[in-house]
Amino acid sequence: MTYRFSAIISKxxxxxxxxxxxxxxxxQGRNVESARVNLGEAIELYIETWEIPNPH
Length: 56
Prior knowledge:
With 56 residues, the protein is α+β, with helices and mostly antiparallel strands. The protein has one domain (8-48). The protein is 30% helix and 29% strand. The chain has one helix and three strands; from the N terminus they run βββα. Strands 1-2-3 form a three-stranded antiparallel beta sheet, covered by helices on one side. Strand 2 (15-20) and strand 3 form a beta hairpin. The longest helix is centred in the C-terminal third of the chain and has 17 residues, at 32-48. The chain is elongated and about 50 Å long. It starts with 7 loop residues before the first strand and ends in an 8-residue tail after the last helix.
């Protein structure tokens, strides 16, 4: 299954903060790319916790 989420990236105190407003998840990195990758990993971990009902 494929999901698409927004990412808002801003710079604060030398770090780039990446936020997904739909899931209220935030991560960070030393540059835009690492912040984006870290946010993607955080989202993947969050989605893994979702309980998907078994149709059987």
